[in-house]
Amino acid sequence: MSAKEIKAELHERWRGDSITSLCDRIIDYASSLPENQVRMLTFRSFGDAVGKDGVDDELLRALTILVSSRLAAFDARALLVDDDDSEHELSAKELEKARATGVLIHPETGEAVPDFESRVIPFFVPSARLRAGNR
Amino acid sequence: MNVKGQYSLEELRLLFRHEPDRIRFEMLIAADHEARLRHVEAAIDWIAQEHAKTPQHRHKRDEDELTTDLITDLKAMGFDASHDKDYGGHADIVIEARENFLWLAEAKIHRDYAWLLKGFQQLDTRYSTGLPGQDTGSLIIYCKRRRVDLVMDRWCEELARARPDVSITVCAENPLIRRSSHRHERTGLLFRVRHVPISIYFKPDDRS
């Protein structure tokens, strides 16, 4: 599936909804980036790419559609950042478990991470669906 | 990776405090079907609560109009919600999400219990696949009569009588909501239904 096909599906499902133009811009932005720059797409980078100062309702809604709907253009991930700035990638399932239990076990030390929500940065990567058409 | 200046999970949670935003955000990072189900249910509850605040605008509306309002609000929250999907026929509300998540609802104005039972049977035996990720749904009951609590009590008695294979419990968070489960005829897996009343009873006593 290519970006073009995902956009066609988007426009079919959300026909007449102005959110599609923002979704298109997000897909175009991610598709235009070289491989080494799509490893961590954040709320901030999407906001900057579409000319927003921060995250507003519209951007949140567009990302919800692109990530959580059948379009599945992006996959959600998270990054744990230690006090010494070392980084550890977490899967969506690891994050879900931490949030459900209130405890995030550090992937290297095996110890509970205090105040983990302030140390975790959600981010996104283009899904296999989106990447397939860009190869 | 440059992580300076990025939003942490804590900052995003503070940004998305308003319930529809919170639900969108949670749906966005949901890792599996159980999480998606929780957020769909939270969205339905929030919309039901909003609709119950304006019964004066809703109590004369028909079933299709009330359901269209619900779908419009779900779409506005970012859900892929529709009412035109053909899954063994046309379920009233269809929500699809990634990895083949499928949630269906039948939405009925309560006029009698046979009508509600028809909705439950349609959901169970006509529309649902009963497959993993597609094994949950809802019966939404628009209630234009008084005492929705009594309606729900009676409905559950009628359901238990008509479908002895169905187990019914009261929702821990909301005593008006019921949860039921039974073995799905097609797959043998547990099929879970949430029975959600939306009260749009409107009969103010301040007019003579």
What would your notes on this structure say?
The complex is a heterodimer of chains A (135) and B (208). In chain A, 44% of the residues lie in helices and 14% in strands. Chain A has 135 residues and is of the alpha+beta class. Chain A folds into 2 domains: 3-74, no CATH class; 77-121, no CATH class. Chain A has a 3-stranded antiparallel sheet. In chain A, helix 1 (3-13) runs antiparallel to helix 2 (19-32). Chain A is elongated and about 50 Å long. Chain B has a 7-stranded mixed sheet with strand order 1-2-3-4-7-6-5, sandwiched between helices. Chain B has helices at residues 9-15, 19-28, 33-52, 55-58, 63-76, 113-127, 148-162, and strands at 80-82, 93-97, 101-109, 136-143, 167-170, 178-183, 190-199. In chain B, helix 2 runs antiparallel to helix 3 (33-52) and helix 6 packs across helix 7. In chain B, 41% of the residues lie in helices and 22% in strands. Chain B is α/β, with parallel strands linked by helices. The chains are: A alpha+beta (135), B alpha/beta (208).
Summarize model confidence as the mean pLDDT of chain B.
93
Q: What is the count of DSSP helices of chain B, taking H or I runs of 4+ residues?
A: 7
Q: What is the share of helical residues of chain A?
A: 40-55%
Fraction in helix of chain B? 40-55%
Helix/strand order of chain A, N-terminal first = HHHHEEHEH
Task: State the helix count of chain A.
Answer: 6
Distance between the termini of chain B: 70 Å
Q: Please summarize the sheet with the most strands of chain A.
A: 3 strands, antiparallel
Tally of separate domains of chain A: 2
By oligomeric state, this entry counts as heterodimer
